[in-house]
Predict the 3D structure of the following.
Amino acid sequence: MTDRTFSIIKPDATRRNLTGKVNAMLEGAGLRIVAQKRIQMSQAQAEEFYGVHRERPFFGSLVAFMTSGPVVVQVLEGDDAVARNREVMGATNPADAAEGTIRKEVAESIEANSVHGSDSAENAAIEIAFFFSDDEIVG
Ligand code: CMP
């Protein structure tokens, strides 16, 4: 089934000018970028977006990292988009990521791991709506 997921190219990747490389890997995995914008996330946005991790020890550092430079927020469309994106991203920790995945090829650390992707269709819908209005998504 064609569906959508939400993706972020994180500050470690935009800083190293890897937006195009990441996008090529997403497209190579069969995902279509149907919305995309480069933004500077505010502290309030990052805290709300990652609210589920509020009690985790890495929360403060994660918010600082995600606001340390521009990010590219995206809507990706494709067959089984959530799972397909998670596959091409690779494991959260690049040390555990499989060969050929984005995190294996470009991520710097478990925090500076270059990309975020929704973990379920339900969260994809919530995350897409957090950054995009319907008329910004052109499939
Ligand atoms: P992401 O998939 O965006 O979801 C939560 C983020 O927290 C994760 O990627 C990492 O960037 C960051 N993070 C930092 N430390 C950890 C950790 N120990 N475990 C999981 N995520 C971490």
